[in-house]
Amino acid sequence: MDIREIERFLKFNQIKPSHHRLKIYEYLVKNKNHPTADLIYRELVDEIPTLSKTTVYNTLNLFVEKGAAQLITIDESENRYDADMSIHGHFKCKHCGKVYDFPLNFAAIDMGGLQNFQVEENHIYLKGLCNDCQIQKEN
Ligand SMILES: [Zn+2]
Ligand SMILES: [Zn+2]
Questions:
Q1: Hey, CA dihedral for 27, 33, 35, 41, is it positive or negative?
Q2: Of 4, 30, 79, 120, which residue has the fewest beta carbons closer than 10 angstroms?
Q3: Is the whole model's pTM more than 0.70, yes or no?
Q4: Can you give the pLDDT at residue 116?
Q5: pLDDT at position 122, please?
């Protein structure tokens, strides 16, 4: 997604594409690191000195509200954000703190007893040690 595609996408989701909003959404799309608002602020403030933490928080909330991004609450102590709205799960490494995406086959999950329920949100969170950290531990 380049900046013009992001502009179209935000408009499509009824979000006015201000400069700050474009930059924040671009960060989410480019980095895929499931950042917190604080991290986005720290990474962008040099480039955009007019940016405030409040703007970052409010913008992220707006993205979530309009369905342009999802809130990831894998860790009780921090809100993380993801522009990838496709169905996928998240794995958080307890050692390095990275959050990884993994594909999720919703149809293959046994939801016995919920056959006629309407699922509106899906959050599959796994925690443990990522591959890199396991290798480090063994050496
Ligand atoms: Zn790790
Ligand atoms: Zn994700």
A1: negative
A2: 120
A3: yes
A4: 87
A5: 86
Give distance in angstroms: CA of 103 to centre of ligand 2: 9
Domain architecture of the chain: domains with CATH: 3-82 (1.10.10.10), 89-138 (3.30.1490)
Say how many Å lie between the CA of residue 107 and the centre of ligand 1: 29
pLDDT in tens, 19-57: 999 999 999 999 999 999 999 999 999 999 999 999 999
Measure 126 CA to ligand 1 centroid, in angstroms: 13
CA–CA separation, 64 vs 83, rounded Å?
Answer: 9
Ranges of beta strands (E only) in 44-107 are 70-75, 78-82, 88-93, 99-103
Instruction: Pick the ligand that lies closest to the CA of residue 89.
Output: 2
